[in-house]
Design goal:
Elements: E1 16-17, H1 22-29, H2 46-56, H3 60-66, E2 69-73, H4 81-86, H5 91-112, E3 119-125, H6 139-154, E4 160-166, H7 169-182, E5 186-190, H8 204-215, E6 221-225, H9 229-232, H10 241-244, E7 246-251, H11 258-263, H12 272-285, E8 291-294, H13 300-310, H14 312-316
Parallel strand pairs: 1-2, 1-8, 2-3, 3-4, 4-5, 5-6, 6-7, 7-8
Helix pairs in contact: 5-6, 6-7, 7-8, 12-13
């Protein structure tokens, strides 16, 4: 049974952490070959699940040590129908791995959660296409497509779902509508290019406001992910209502563009100190940003540094 589905603890304030760049860490730090960047392939056997557990357990002690909450993502960013078929997973096999992903994080919650650090189970849903290239779906098509994963998560212990690395409004709207129909809290996380706009030129403000209008403001909140803070800091404005709806950041380690990262065969971990200071600046300027994690190139070292920079203990020092 879902523990927090009807009352997400992060909605009540307080600092929550999340993990880093799962796929880049599994590939470059743990040595796994992930076809099509799909971490869900590790869920089918005990050895793979052990590797995912090892990955998660780099992060959970950071939150527990500070008494902070944690939003724990499933390894399912690529576990949708089109991506699954590309690597030989039919619908039934995908249903099994999506459910297994929730079982894995539910077991971690049982071991790591304490009264001082609620752990929220988040069903991660990625874009139907390439997260760095604009999709072409209408909202209704996106709703139909992504309902496959949303409905699986609704039947598990998952507390919520997140549409991660969204680069079009239509796809974000479709996932939010599918989640609402299934009774699942939903978060929408947009990614932007170096100019702070979505790949199709839509401003972050316009994307959030259009999603709000098309969904009756059904998303629990919004996030920004898979972009360096230098790419979106200039797009934010203090005091504006749309910015207050952004409650989380999962930035890339590198300040390189998406095109540059796509062409790279090495891991760029960026400047960890600079990244943590930028998170500190964002959380001070925008108090609503309190769910903090990482994306491509980040690992537990980045999250630890971010935690040190923004946590109450660090602020009081």
């Amino acid at each position: 049974m879902a523990k927090y589905r009807h009352a997400l603890p992060q909605a009540n304030g307080g600092l929550f952490l999340s993990d880093g760049g799962m796929e880049t860490a599994l590939i470059f730090l743990q040595g796994h070959d992930l076809p099509q960047f799909a971490s869900f392939v590790l869920l089918e056997d005990a050895a793979g699940r052990a590797e995912l557990t090892k990955y998660y357990e780099h992060y959970l002690p950071i939150a527990v040590g500070r008494g902070l909450g944690f939003v724990l993502d499933t390894a399912t960013w690529r576990a949708s129908l089109d991506w699954g078929r590309m690597i030989g997973f039919d619908a039934e096999r995908l249903r099994a791995v999506n459910a297994a992903a929730v079982d894995l994080v539910a077991g971690l919650r049982e071991r790591w959660e304490t009264p001082g650090n609620p752990i929220v189970l988040n069903g991660a849903i990625g874009p139907r296409g390439d997260g760095y290239k604009a999709g072409r779906m209408e909202a209704g098509e996106a709703e139909d497509y992504h309902a496959f994963q949303v409905d699986i998560f609704a039947g598990t212990q998952a507390d919520m779902v997140s549409a991660i690395t969204m680069n079009t409004v239509n796809e974000a709207v479709g996932i939010a509508r599918a989640a609402k129909a299934a009774g699942m809290p939903c978060v929408v996380s947009f990614t932007v290019e170096t100019d702070g706009r979505l790949v199709d030129g839509t401003t972050l403000r316009a994307a959030i406001e259009a999603t709000e209008a098309a969904t009756g403001a059904s998303p629990a909140y919004y996030m920004v992910n898979c972009a360096h803070p230098t790419h979106f800091e200039q797009a934010l404005a203090r005091g504006e209502e749309w910015v207050k709806r952004i409650h989380g950041v999962r930035a890339n380690a590198s300040a390189k563009s998406h095109a540059e990262l796509d062409e790279s065969d090495t891991l760029d971990i960026g400047d960890i100190g600079d990244l943590s200071r930028r998170y500190q600046g964002l959380t001070r300027a925008f108090p609503s940003m309190r769910i903090l994690g990482g994306c491509c190139g980040t690992d537990h070292r980045h999250i630890h540094a971010i935690c040190e920079a923004v946590s109450p203990a660090a602020a009081a020092a």
